[in-house]
Every structure is written in C-alpha cells, then in structure tokens.
Specification:
The chain is mainly alpha-helical. The protein has eleven helices and no strands. The protein has a domain of about 55 residues.
Amino acid sequence: MNTQAVSIELARLAVELVQMDDESARRTIDRLKSEGLSREQVREAILQTYLFDGYPTALEGLFLLRDQWPGKAAPLEEPDFNQWETWRARGRELYQRIYGSVADRLQEVAKAAAPELAEWMVVEGYGKVLSRPGLDIRTREMVIVAILLVKGRKRQLESHIRGALRVGVPAEDLYAMLQLLRSHCKPEYRRAAWDMIDQRTSRTQ
C-alpha cells in the first residue's frame, strides 16, 4: 500500500468511526492489517479522533481495534503531565509549521473567542497528540481533513486543508480522498472542500 493509499484508508477509518459505522470500520481495520500497516499506525489514527470527535469515538475505535487486531503494545508515549512545557514548546513548533504566516493571526482569533481553548489547542492538540511519534504529520492532517469534511466544520476544514498542503500533502491526495468520501458527506460539504483546495491550486473541478 503506497503512502497515498495509507493516508486515505486511515482517513476512511476515522470517518467510519465518527459516523458510528462499526461494521465498515471492522472491515477497514482488517484490510489495513492485511496490507501490512503496523498496528501502531492504525492505533494512532484512531487515538487522535478524540481531538475532533470526542473520547467516545476514540474509545469505541480502540475497542474495535482490540477486537479485530489484538495486541498489548504500550502507547508510544506515556502521558506525563510534567511534560506540559515540553508539549507547549513542540505544539507551538508544529502549529507554526502547519500554519506558517497566518499562525499568529489564527491563534489570536482563537484567543479572542476562548483563551482556554486557544491554549489547550496548542498544548493538548498539537503538542501532546499530533506531535506523537507513530504517524507522520501528513497522514495526521489527512485524517483531520476527512473528519472535518464529514462534520461540515468549514472554518476548521479550510484551516486544515491549508495546513495539509503546507506540510506537503499533495493536492491530488486531497482530491482523491474527496472522491472516496463522497458518499459519506453532504454534497455541499464536498463542493466547499473542493473549492478550498482549488483556491490554493491551479486545478478546477
């Protein structure tokens, strides 16, 4: 399975979990296992869903993984809240990498609405979770874009499409994912996402 296929299949799994389609998620986990992905890669993709769809989705996904692909591997990084400053530092670094010149402006917008969430977003989201080893940031961004697409969260979707392209996700991979997920989301969500990608590339639908 090539890099594009891995990212798209993990994104599909995340969407199936968000949409509570457990039977499809089981089949996707089986397929990923048979295609040679590591259990840790699948686990990381499931684990990060809690940032975008809550603990219930992540927990149910991990229960499915446990049932379909038994394993007792320890987490790649054990939680230790003494690492708060480390998480903050690496969260800021990753946030800057993803958003570039608009990073400060986006952070100020978030702070104006909810100072607590603006801080947690950097420390918890980018520092503690999305900077974990086990899954590269391109794949993580593909998973995020897929979840935001099916949820119709256009503001965050636009930010993460921009971020995905900035960290090196090929536009073709994003278009391919939109095609794959067309039956999972409302047509207007897919059109909006396609337009967001078009605005940053020379391609038209």
